[in-house]
Amino acid sequence: MSTLVTLLLAMLPLAAGWAVHVRWLRRCLSTARRDPLTGLRTRDGFTRRATALLKDPRAVVVLADVDKFKQINDTHGHAAGDMLLKATADRLAHHVGRAGVAGRLGGDEFAAVLLDAHGTAGDMLTLLHGVLARPVEGQDPAVHTTVSLGWVRAADFPTDDLSGLLRRADEAMYAAKQARAGLRRAGLGRLFATLAGRRAGRAGARADAPIVGVAA
What is the rounded distance in angstroms from the CA atom of residue 58 to the CA atom of residue 70? Predict the structure, then answer.
């Protein structure tokens, strides 16, 4: 018995060290899945959480793109652009809430999945669009822009995975941007032609392929 106790006592420091190492690895993994500027999930982290949320029939997929972001960077500098991205991310994350997820896909493009418990996604996103257009506190009022939003209710396209739903939201967002409408929902109708989900202006697009979508 004493030998077993001695052995167990000898193993305690090793077990404690391994537990510390596991916690460190988890922190590193969590950090790797967070965008260093905005604190939102990166594409990989967003995809994992969003895919799980799509199992809920109330899920709504949103794509957001900052309007004229390059112009802001060129005119006011990258620091102003970074402040704008950070504010956009904070507002989006707050609006989505803990039940949903928001991520930065890259550049000035953001995505989110939220749960529409009351069937009022259109109203919720109209409110969000207004919030995202507000001037950034503490920044030059001249640094002002809007954010174009495209969204799709996952239940409308039950055979689509996250990638397919994001493509539909991307089409709707681009249509909203072109029409200066601010917000558009993917549904039934016709938007901009695509090939394999690539909208006009992106690699792989063509002019004669149909796409579904309709204004909110």
Answer: 35
Are the C-beta atoms of 50 and 162 separated by less than 8 Å?
Answer: yes
Cα(9)–Cα(2) distance, integer angstroms: 10
Q: Would you say residue 182 has pLDDT above 50?
A: yes
* In contact, 129 and 147? CB cutoff 8 Å: yes
pLDDT of residue 33: 73
Q: Looking at this protein, which amino acid is placed at residue 50?
A: A
**Residue with token string 């391994």:** 18
Long-range (24+ apart) CB contacts under 8 A made by 48-56 are: 49/101, 49/113, 50/101, 50/103, 50/111, 50/113, 50/162, 51/161, 51/162, 53/100, 53/101, 53/113, 53/115, 54/113, 54/154, 54/161, 54/162, 54/165, 56/115
Question: What ranges in 33-161 are assigned the alpha helix state H?
Answer: 43-53, 69-76, 78-96, 121-132
User: Whole-angstrom Cα distance, residue 26 to residue 14?
Assistant: 18
pLDDT in tens, 111-142: 999 999 899 999 999 999 999 988 888 777 77
Q: Cβ(151)–Cβ(62) under 8 Å?
A: yes
Q: For residues 166 and 111, is the Cβ–Cβ distance under 8 A?
A: yes
Predicted confidence (pLDDT) per residue in 75-89, tens digit: 889 899 999 999 999
**pLDDT at residue 206, as a whole number:** 35
d(CA 60, CA 157) in angstroms, rounded, equals 11
Known catalytic residues? 108
Q: What is the pTM of this model?
A: 0.74
